[in-house]
Write a structure and sequence with these properties.
This protein is of the alpha/beta class. The chain has three helices and twelve strands; from the N terminus they run βαβββββαβββββαβ.
Length: 231
């Protein structure tokens, strides 16, 4: 929520349902980039419906357009140029990534509103598991307070990184369900180096959630904010 209002981005009434697809196995990152680019172009041309694609990747780091070389502390895993906004982030097993290819012309041609709605999608999904996530104006992503680590300590539980081409969105969100959190140590995640801020996951918070349960919560939250899904 922002200013007391829940952001929604429902499409025009004549739009088809958003295809909802869950990858059956880990998807190589370069394959994901190629698939997204092809689908986004088809959506922009009116040849395909919108798509939300849920995936896991093998362990890797991605560099956004704002990534600083000094924030790659140790290249423990392959490093990929992502083409999205933002800095360095980690992707790997136990992290649910939702790539959202949506046509903002059918919704609202407002990138900031889209980002805020993605944040709300994550926050509502986390709330399904009793986790209170929040946005921070000075820090991208969704954060949880950790008084057990210090009075002002917060950990990041979900990342956001997007790209928009011809008003079609690419990339999306990543929620830490139960990844190996030590894998984040090779980078300065999203450029936040302050010791008061770390990285967490549902498992780290004591939440035993399966990926299928997270997927179901994501779908419910998506439909409330973005409209109906199919497939």
């Amino acid at each position: 929520m922002r200013d007391g209002m829940v952001e929604t981005l429902h499409p025009t009434a004549d739009s088809a349902a958003v295809e909802w697809r869950v990858a059956a196995s880990r998807v190589p990152y370069e394959e994901a980039l190629a698939t997204m680019a092809a689908r986004a172009a088809a959506i922009a041309d009116g040849r395909a419906s919108e798509l939300v694609w849920l995936v896991e990747h093998p362990p890797l780091y991605t560099a956004g357009t704002g990534a600083k070389p000094e924030h790659l502390l140790e290249a423990r895993f392959p490093v990929h140029s992502a083409g999205r906004g933002g800095q360095f982030t980690y992707h790997g097993p136990g992290q649910r990534i939702a790539y959202a290819m949506l046509d903002l012309k059918r919704r609202a041609p407002d990138v900031r509103r889209f980002v805020v709605t993605l944040e709300e999608w994550i926050i509502q999904t986390l709330a399904s598991f009793g986790v209170e996530g929040g946005r921070r104006d000075e820090r991208i992503g969704v954060w949880v307070r950790r008084p057990d680590k210090g009075a002002d300590h917060e950990d990041k539980i979900a990342a956001i990184g997007i790209r928009v081409q011809r008003w079609v969105t690419l990339h999306g969100i990543a929620i830490n369900v139960a990844p190996d959190l030590t894998h984040f140590s090779g980078i300065v995640p999203c450029g936040v180096a302050d010791a008061r801020y770390g990285v967490t996951s549902l498992a780290d918070l004591g939440i035993d959630a399966s990926m299928a349960e997270v997927d179901a919560a994501l779908r419910r939250g998506f439909e409330a904010l973005f409209g109906r899904t199919g497939g």
